[in-house]
Structure formats: structure tokens, C-alpha cells
Amino acid sequence: MKFLIITHVPHGNEDGRFFAYAPFVREMNIWAKYIDELIIVAPLTLKEKTSISFNYEKQRIKFIPINEFNAIGVQSKFNAIREVPKIVFAIYKAMKEANHIHLRCPGNIGLLGCIVQIFFPNKIKTAKYAGNWDPDAKQPLSYRVQKWILSNTFLTRKMQVLVYGTWQNQSKNIKSFFTATYSEEDKISIEDKNLQDEIKFIFVGTLSKGKNPLYAIKIVEEIAKSYSNISLEIFGNGQLFHALEKYIETKKLKHIIFLKGNQKLDIIKTAYIKSHFLILPSKSEGWPKVVAEAMFWKCLPIATQVSCVSNMLDHGNRGILLSENIDKDVDSIKKVLIDQIEYNRRIKNAINWSRNFTIDKFDQEIKTLLKQ
User: Fold this and answer.
1) d(CA 83, CA 80)
2) Strand residues in the chain grouped as ranges (E)
3) If you average pLDDT over residues 54-68, what whole number do you get?
4) What is the mean pLDDT of residues 216-228?
5) pTM for the whole thing?
6) β-strands 17-21, 11-14: how paired?
7) 307 with 137: CB under 8 angstroms?
8) Is 327 in contact with 305 (CB distance < 8 Å)?
9) C-alpha separations of 230 from 197, 252, 296, 334, 368 in Å
10) What is the mean pLDDT of residues 323-332?
11) CA-CA distance, 131 to 126, in Å (whole number)?
């Protein structure tokens, strides 16, 4: 089977080995176990590997590089007009060659893939919509168009669309799905976490406006006015790194808030195990892996009510839901901080739920998908 991936995720090539963002590649390596040849249509723009890069394991890979584009600003629109026909042609040729077409959405390349696949009604297809599938969510036009095409069973024949969360009134090709980081072997026992010890918060994610790390800092800053034994470690990098660094210095928070940058999976895992709470005040998500990962290691998630997060947290029974009103949110967290029994109850619910979603289960689901 020739399995084709259409994606906007930037890739790189080092000594003949292709690499990209680690969580994405780890997932695609599972798909690739059950196919003969991998064809990838994606930007080839990464110059070197970093701590968050990972290699494809498949040896038989045909890589078709395309340019990135967007339509923000006048010059970008002109560039898009020039690049889109080239990208569409590359996607069309790759789809013609492939036995199975796999789209990664949402994104500009995913949108083009959604359109081009219409001309291949007899090919087996899957699409992974990694963003917010909530029908009521306010999203850019390109996202809404992708969701409309993917939900239209006339335009997406022989396609299964994998989405995060369970939503009402969906077309028959929409399949509720999940993602995973840890295996059955990782289900080790974790010691109970005492709220009388130093209370450790962590943030894991890109330091961008969408992930809203500043709000996580402000929450801990407010709680620190009442508690002297708390700290926040921030794992990740991005455009806001220096702005956050400046805020921490200006507010004299360097003794309780620590910017750790990008770190490998094992270091993040250790941080989950040592921490009491994860804070994720994202403005948009699909299935936030960090929420499920934190739960797996008895780290209680505090997250905004976007996409399927409310379901993941069972409306607060497996974590704390943020309202984005700092006074209310700090109050909600403090109520749990003073109640060890309530904290333990939510943690138990969280770990029991998250450990249902392992790499082993994900592997079996992918294997079943590819057989259909």
C-alpha cells in the first residue's frame, strides 16, 4: 500500500532521514507500521533537529516538498496566488499515485487537500482534524470550509474523518477519536501528592497567544499572595518567550516561576509526576495531549472550556475548568488547594480515565481503520 500524507507540518532531512515535530511523527510512525510505502507532501523547511523533533522510522519514503503559504497581508496574497497552483498540482499527482490518502487538517495545505481529494472518489481516504470540531466554535473561514467539505459525504466518498470529542448531528463519516502518548507498560503506580508540600504547577505548550501562557503566570502570581509554597514551571518555546521573561522579571517572580524551554518527553514526564497541577488556558484546542498526559501521571489539569476539554475533564470531576475570569479561576483553584479529599477524588477520576487511552489502544484503532 502506498500511503499518502498531506500536511502543513514543516519537515527536515538529516543524513537522508526525514524528521518533523515529534508528536506528529510518533503518531504517523504508528500508521506507517501497516503500509508498504510512505508518500509525504509537506514543506521541507526545517534546517536542523531540535529537542522536539523526531525521525520517521519508515525506510521507504517518497518526499514531495511544497512551499508554505498564507493569505495574511497583501504580499502574502500575491505569493499565495503564485504558489497555490503548484501545490495543487503536486497534491493531485501524489493522490493519483497513492492507494490511501490521508489529510491532516485544519490548515492551508489541508484545505487544498480537501478540495483535490474530491476528484478521487474511488480512493480510500482518512482525514485527521486535529483542531476544534465544535460546530458552534467561532473559527476562520478556511477552517469552516474544511469542516463543511469533510462533513459532506458526497464530496468525501470513501473517507473516514477522525475528530476529537463527541458531537451531535454529525454525518456518518465522522468518527470520534483520540490520541495517546504512553503505553500499557507506562501504567506504573504514582505516589499520592500532598497539598501540604510545595505545590507545583506546570504549563506545557507553545509560548503563543493561542496557548495563553501569561494567564497561567497571572493565576500563580495571584495564588502566591496567599500561599508561599508554590511554583510554576513553564515548558515550551515560542514568540512570547522574551515577553514572559520580562514580565517575570518586572513582577519579581523569578523565585517561583521558571521558564524551562523545550524539553524531551522524559523530562516532561518527570515534571508531570512531581507536579500537582497542569495549567492550560488555551484559546483553541483539538484534543490537548498535555491534559491527558498530566492526568496519566496524577497531575490535575486546570484548563479552559474549549473543544472537547470539558468532556475530558468530565465538567470538572477530573480537573478544574477555567472561566477566564481571573478572580473566579483563582477562587476555584483555592477551593481545591484547601481540600485534600476533593483533590484526591478528582485525581483518581482523572488517572482512571486517561489510562484508557494508550498507544497500544491507538495502534489497534489505526490497524482497524486501515483494514476497512
Assistant:
1) 5
2) 2-6, 11-14, 17-21, 37-46, 53-55, 61-66, 100-105, 124-129, 159-164, 174-177, 199-204, 230-235, 257-261, 277-280, 300-304, 320-322
3) 96
4) 96
5) 0.91
6) antiparallel
7) yes
8) no
9) 9, 15, 22, 12, 46
10) 96
11) 15
